[in-house]
Amino acid sequence: MKKRIIAVIILLTVIILCCACSNNENLEIGMYRSAESTKYGYAEITLSENNEFVFGVATYSYCPSGKYTVEGNALILTVNEEEKFIFTIDDEKLIFESGEWAEKVLDKGTVFQLFQEEE
């Protein structure tokens, strides 16, 4: 009986871990650019494979960077414990939801699209 319970717990743990890891697969690595220019120019977010990001706005010298995580359909960019930016993931788009510094330069609902340079 104990072996069955342990086997079920291990199986459930594996399933949960697989589901948690698969969220990142839906998020494409690369540069996302605001679909429209903000009052301070275009904003860009670059996501790297090692779960690191750089977030910049054209006319600002401050470019926050740090680690990102995906929780469900939320992308969370963490600079430090006090500074985080939250986006909703919608296919190949990121929609800005909140973040103290970013709220000074972006409107809630600003859409970022995966940027592909034209050849």
Describe the structure.
With about 120 residues, the chain is an alpha+beta fold. It has a single domain (about 25-115), classed as Lipocalin (Beta Barrel), CATH 2.40.128. It contains one helix and eight strands. The protein has an eight-stranded antiparallel beta barrel with strand order 1-2-3-4-5-6-7-8. A hairpin with a 4-residue loop joins β2 (about 45) and β3 (about 50-55). The longest helix has 24 residues, at about 1-25. The termini are far apart.
Number of domains: 1
What is the string of helix and strand elements? HEEEEEEEE
Task: Tell me the strand percentage band.
Answer: 35-45%
Main CATH class = Mainly Beta
- Total number of beta strands: 8
Structural class: alpha+beta
CATH fold label: Lipocalin
> Largest beta sheet, briefly?
8 strands, antiparallel, barrel
Biggest sheet strand line-up: 1-2-3-4-5-6-7-8
Q: Indicate the CATH architecture.
A: Beta Barrel
Count every helix, treating DSSP H or I runs of 4 or more residues as helices: 1
Kindly, what is the distance between the CA atoms of the first and last residues, rounded to a whole number of angstroms? 63 Å
Low-confidence stretches: 16-23
* Average pLDDT reading: 82
Helix content: 10-25%
- How many whole angstroms does the radius of gyration measure? 18 Å
Shape designation: elongated
